[in-house]
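I'd like us to work through together how a protein chain folds, taking it slowly. To get us started, please write out a protein record for me. Go ahead whenever you are ready, and we will take it from there:
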Amino acid sequence: MTEAAEAPTGNTEDEGNEAPTKKPGAVYYLGRTLISGVAKTVFRPTITGRENVPKTGPVILASNHLSFIDSIVIPISAPRPVQFLAKSTYFTGTGFKGWVSRNFFTAIGAVGVERGAGQAAQDALDQGKRILDGGNAFALYPEGTRSLDGRLYRGRTGIAWLALTTGATVVPVGLIGTQEIQPVGTTMPRVRKVTVKFGEPIDVSHYGPATSGKARRQATDEIMAAIHALTGQELAGSYNEAPPSGTLHRIADKVFPRERI
C-alpha cells in the first residue's frame, strides 16, 4: 500500500462476508523452489530468527522497505509460504510478456490489488484481511512505500488494524543491504550481501480494539520500534510521502493530521 488513507473506524458489520483467500497453489510452490534456490546460491543471504515465525496460523511479517527486491527476499527467506500485495497491472498484461509477469508474481506469492488512496487503500486492507483470515502469512511494509534515502519512516496504522481485526501475530522483519542489490532507477539486480532478520513475535491485542485510533497508533509504533531494533536505520520521524502542496493543504494537514495506513 503506497498511498495515505485513514484506517477504517466505522461500521464493520459486513466484515467477514468475503471468503478468505486460499493458500498459494502449485505455481507458487514450484516458483518459490526455483527462485529460492537460484537467489540463495547467487546472493547467499544471511538469515536469522526464522524460528520466530509461527509455522501455522495468521501472521503478519512487518518489514522495512528499501528496494523492489524486498518482495522477493522475504518470501525466499521465510520458513513458510508468504503472500503480499502487488499492483494489479502485474497480472493483467497480455501476450508473452503478460504471461511471464503474471506467473512470476504468482510464483513469489503476490496478490494483485489496485493501489491508491481512499477506497483503493481500503480495498487493499480488505484483501490483506482475507489473506490472514485464510490462516496465511502476509508480508506488509508499514512505511507504505520504499525509503529512497535509507531512513526508517513512521508506520501507517493499517498494519495495526489488520493485526487487531484478525488476531494475527506480528513478526518484525529487518532487511539490510537490499537497496544495494537493486538501487532505485535500476532494472538489473547486482550481487551484493543482504541480511534478513526475523524478530520476536509481537502480540498487539493488549492495546485495545481495532476501532480505537489510539490503540492502532500505539500498536504501530511498537512494531516500528521492533523493526528499528533489527535494522539500526536512522529514524526519519515523519511519514514517507511527498509534502502536501499548497498553503491551505499544509495547514489542514497540521491541524487535522490523518492516520496513515
About this structure: The chain has one domain: 26-255. The chain is about 35% helix and 15% strand. Strands lie at 46-48, 59-63, 82-87, 110-113, 137-140, 169-176, 195-198.
